[in-house]
Amino acid sequence: MAVKRNPLSSIEVHGPVAAHQARAVIEESLRNAILDGRLPCGTAIRQEALAALFGVSRMPVREALRQLESQGLLHVVQYKGAVVAPLIEDNSLESYELRLLLEAEALRQSVPLLDEQDLASASGYIEAMEAETDMSKVGTLNRLFHQALYNKAPNKKLLALVDAGLIEEERFLRFNLEQMNLGSLAQDDHRTLLRLARAKEVDACVAELGLHLQRAVNAITHYLDRRKTKQP
Fold first, then answer.
1. Which tens digits make up the pLDDT trace of 68-104?
2. CATH number (domain holding residue 66)
3. pTM of the predicted protein model
4. Pairing between strand 81-84 and 74-77?
5. Range of the domain at 72
6. Interior CA angle at 69 toward 156 and 66, to 5°?
7. 77 forms bridges with which residues in the sheet?
8. What φ, ψ does residue 77 adopt, rounded to 5°?
9. Residues 82, 87, 91, 96, CA torsion sign
10. What whole-number distance in Å separates Cα of residue 219 and Cα of residue 199?
11. What is the rounded distance in angstroms from the CA atom of residue 174 to the CA atom of residue 167?
């Protein structure tokens, strides 16, 4: 009789986890495992198993799972508990419409306040994407680039919503960037966004962001249409 594999066996815990860091450590560990595919879609995440793995109570585990659910990485399913969400949901296009509104406002607030260090960080992420061949890492660099442009927005609740959307997109990009053939187009968009942000041309920068996100909408539409044609 085959031994059922523990889905959490791919997560390494290095020593005891301090109580005040438990929620953040569990959240980051699970997020990384979901984003890089070690915890694939449909995997059930048991609170008891997580608490035992990290040597903590269930409270920080529940808090971490709630955070990941708010980022679209987990669903809470009756009788199964927390389950790793699909890469793309049927309502993902609606999510992108909301993302465009949120990110446009974050960019509008942030651009006038960006300093040279912010712009240098954004430029560095573009250069890193140029040199990177591992598409999973490109997805992370893409998220960091956008966060560098948005980070000076004073509205922290807005930034939290924006970050959740970027994390959801990162997971999709990690697995589909190559197939979407968006690499060079996205980099051209990124350079234009950076140039306009550096020049403090806020309206033009926001308009460019709309064009950039529309490419992702088109890619997701194609992905969903292709998935539907494969269904019996």
1. 988 878 988 777 789 998 776 666 677 778 888 999 9
2. 1.10.10.10
3. 0.69
4. antiparallel
5. 19-84
6. 80
7. 81
8. -115, 135
9. positive
10. 30
11. 11
